[in-house]
Amino acid sequence: MAIKVENLTFVYNPGTAMEQKAINDVSFEIPDGQFVGLIGHTGSGKSTLIQHLNGLVKPTGGKIYYNGEDIYAEGYSLRQLRSKVGLVFQYPEHQLFEVDVFSDVCYGPRNLGLSETEIRNRAEDALRLVGMKEKYWDQSPFELSGGQKRRVAIAGVLAMNPEVLILDEPTAGLDPKGRDEILDQIEALHEARGMTIILVSHSMEDMARYADRLLVMNHGEKAFDGTPKEIFRHYQELEQMGLAAPQVTYVIHALRERGVKVDEDITTVEEARKSLLKVLGLGEGSIC
User: Fold this and answer.
1) Which domain holds residue 253?
2) Crossing angle, helix 146-158 and helix 116-129, to 10 degrees?
3) Same domain, 144 and 94
4) Rounded to two decimals, what is the model's pTM?
């Protein structure tokens, strides 16, 4: 089991007039190799939660285990944990600072005290994994496009060789093409390395397309935990939390209300296309 969270609670400014409970008695387990989506309205506790998972924030109560070890036990190395559980913050390109792309990606592994050969090998592998062509490696990261900067920032985390990759809104501010490229690269990483992925996003379409499982946070508590299809059956309850389901879910329910016998648990456009073809009695090649 990669990550286990038991009865996690976190309170900001405890014992003061500004006291606020951000996370309340949250428990879950994430097995190795799972692609987990984390969703919730603004202020639901998502960002606070993920900062606990690699020890950046210490809980007010509860336990967090990584590979069976309590990460806050005396003598446990949080530095080593952070090399295994990589966290990519929202707008990570704001943390780029080196003179060129390659140097920036080398920064993390160099702090691990690795040999220069190992540092270079890790940086090269990471840049290739995120699809950065060698012609960009000697450029200043500040000369790149928004999507390219985002790739460099993710490569810097990947160069640490993490077993778990946590991404907080990695596509925020990108155009549709840049968003799809980043998410496709993350999915490719997941498949190629069997890496555990925890993705925070407000896009229900992205969650339906990429995630194996969704955790839904609401006012600091875990509201739902299940597959995307299981979660989006509760689309009316999600709306009450300030969330939604993928747009195609609403189209499908509208069709069913009008007597069209499409499958109920459709969450992606591709699933909708196949179901409609089946209802119409048409083959896969009938409509492009």
Assistant:
1) 246-288
2) 140
3) yes
4) 0.89
